[in-house]
Amino acid sequence: MLDAPYLVGVESPWPQVRAELLEWMTVRLGAQGRLEAWRDVILSPPVQALLTGIVIVADWIASNEEYFPYQPVFLNGSDRLAAAWEALDLPSPWSAVSPPADADVLYATRFELPEGARPRPVQRAVVDAARQMPVPGLLIVEAPMGEGKTEAALAAVEVLAERSGAGGCFIALPTRATSDAMFSRVLGWLRRLPDADIGRGAHGVALAHGKARLNTEFTTLFRAPLPSGIGMDEGGASAAAHRWLAGRKRAMLAGFVIGTIDQLLFTALKKRHLVLRHLGLAGKVVVIDEAHAYDVYMSQYLDRALEWLGAYGVPVVVLSATLPARRRAEMLQAYDNGRFGSEPRPRRRRRTGSGEPSPYQALQEDMRYPLLSFSGVGRAPTAVACDSSSRTARVTVERHGDDLVLLAETLREALAEGGCALVVRNTVTRVQETADELRRQFGDELEVSVAHSRFMGPDRSAKDRWLVDAFGSPEHLARLGRQRPGRHVVVASQVAEQSLDIDFDVLVTDLAPVDLILQRIGRLHRHRRNRPAPLSQPRCLITGADWDAQPPAPVSGSRAVYGESNLLRAAAVLWPYLAEDRVLELPADISSLVQAAYGGGPVGPGQWQARLQEAAERAEKKESKRTQRANDYRLGKVGAAGSDLRGWLAGETGDAERGSDDARGRAHVRDDGPETLDVLVLVRTGEGLRTPSWLAENGGAFVPTDVIPPAWLARTVASCTLSLPAAMTSGPGQMDRLIDELERRAYYPAWKDNPWLGGELILELDEAGTANIAGFSLAYDRFDGLRVARDPS
């Protein structure tokens, strides 16, 4: 171009060349007679987005020299294309066959059920709803913890895929850890899944989150021969991870994708390559798990994503144990806005001028539970109540003072004849403080362990496995040949309430929003087993508040995490159980508690009302600001046919798939407060830099800094990811100070182009596992994780 300036500018011949190429292609394809009719075709924005995505993917493939080399020139166009397509070897789409009509047969052939087990009522009802609801449509499943909602969702996926012609599915979960756990379960399901077109090659599978390449189960799929993938039963579908589909921008194009909720929320975020995310979801069934975990800010993006999914005709299944009724109505209306066009969001329990509630408003008044809500014909959603399993519980709920010595005395008494206790704290700092004091109080009397998010990746995975292997179901322990600990206390953060099948005899929890307290109670007497006599009835003690105050005063850490209003309303709706010795009936009381806590009406004693109102007003102002902030970066509504995509990404935030921009994109769709900072942890010894010695794989390995480490070692180093807490990044200039100090102490130019280590920040610990940086003292070990203390000024 520099040698041919005449090719640049308004007099450039490029427009004429493009016109000649288009005219040549038109003649070549015999399309001259169709141009007049095509000129009158009006494409909707969803169709424009998908066509744009297809063009981009086609361009990427055609521009790839590996598949379309410039040599040999003797191949004609058809042979060259055939050779490229064979070399690319993309996995075939799923072609679902009609699932067995008998729900017993369907669940028995798709999942590892215990001998003699039959589907629970909720699981049967979900399959029935998937068969009856319009397609496309949205199905919301609200059911207690432990009812088998995951298996029900996968069964619904199969039904909806066969009805809609979908060629895959995407399953969205709250965190990387829950996505990794779900990945294993989905692979097991795929092993048993029949296919109408057996023999066309393996179906593509992808794990979609920022650390997916560190998941050994996922990366192992690349080493398997693509056509066979995982060993499958004869007649079942096969699965494999395809290298071309493993890139950050292309992972969502695989047939079966498991990932974090961010990957779905990104479809409503103004980002480059957004059309590829839309293309990846169109033609799938989407499952959104643990919908109760998504706050007001994230819900702005989720609702817009649902609107576009509705426009694309994508069937969606939403799972939740405890969902406020207003969210139920908002999600269904958002989806229907995509199906039929926008109309105002449902008002809070307000009736129309005719005196009849609108269909969405009626959903807000439905207090039945378990409940299935799904799209109807037109804007008339259907709600169907279904039975719970025979699993019921009567839980005693008690107030407990926020004194650690008192807590130790309570646990000593409760566990006098043995048993396992779970103590859930709302912050990692409270987890570690509690564990330290309990160890001082108990000594060798019983063991105290911790579980929280401030562990390196391998240690967090090992901790999750240990929890399930020690406190899981009797069947799981029997398969392992293990016994449950005789007396044990686990002090955990919120990680204990998310997707871990663990079971304890007694629960102590910080005051939290009522839906999360119910989630935590779901870890109490979860399975049938023999328990010590004093713990034969489930018991939950709620602490983390001054119960003598009117209303109760939550501790500061909990207020920072959840907001005072949510905590006070939780205390208010639980007050009859806390103050009047009323027993919590599960699952019967779940819906009424959640709807009362989030319904906006007065709750709790009369003398609390002024304080609750003040807290509610502060929360509403904060939510309004967060909603506006979300709107600044949120994709617009689905436009009418004839409107185009110009300005679609006005104000866009960059590329959600590019390295550090992945974290920036996550920050836009989540409002988690002050940012954390991910680092890779290594240990500085007298002989040089080494990986942590306790790693099961390549522990204590020497890490060269003057050359690029070999791939096996670089991957091990990359797996040692640790999130430094927000306390270390908060404050003016503190994030920059922290990054500058990390780079000054450990920057290795030889690593900058390495795909595993390039651009990563390194935290070097001494051999005792400690470091001082940016005004903080750090200490790390594999049992208790990272401890952080601010240095004295």
Shape: globular
The CATH superfamily of the largest domain is P-loop containing nucleotide triphosphate hydrolases
Strand content: 5-15%
Discrete helix count: 26
CATH class designation of the largest domain? Alpha Beta
Helix proportion range: 25-40%
Question: Could you name the CATH topology of the largest domain?
Answer: Rossmann fold
Q: What is the alpha-carbon Rg in Å?
A: 28 Å
What this model shows, in words?
With 793 residues, the protein is an alpha/beta fold. The protein folds into four domains: 1-41, no CATH class; 103-349 and 357-385, Rossmann fold (3-Layer(aba) Sandwich), CATH 3.40.50; 405-615, P-loop containing nucleotide triphosphate hydrolases (Rossmann fold), CATH 3.40.50; 674-790, no CATH class. 39% of the residues lie in helices and 15% in strands. It has 26 helices and 25 strands. It has a nine-stranded mixed sheet with strand order 4-3-5-2-6-7-1-8-9, with helices on both faces. The protein has a seven-stranded mixed sheet with strand order 12-13-11-14-15-10-18, sandwiched between helices. Strands 19, 20, 21 and 22 form a four-stranded mixed sheet that branches. Strand 24 and strand 25 (785-790) form a beta hairpin. Residues 336-360, 613-633, 650-670 are annotated as: Disordered. Keywords: Antiviral defense, ATP-binding, Helicase, Hydrolase, Metal-binding, Nuclease, Nucleotide-binding. One of its GO terms (biological process) is defense response to virus. This is CRISPR-associated Cas3 family helicase. Residues 130-341 form the Helicase ATP-binding domain.
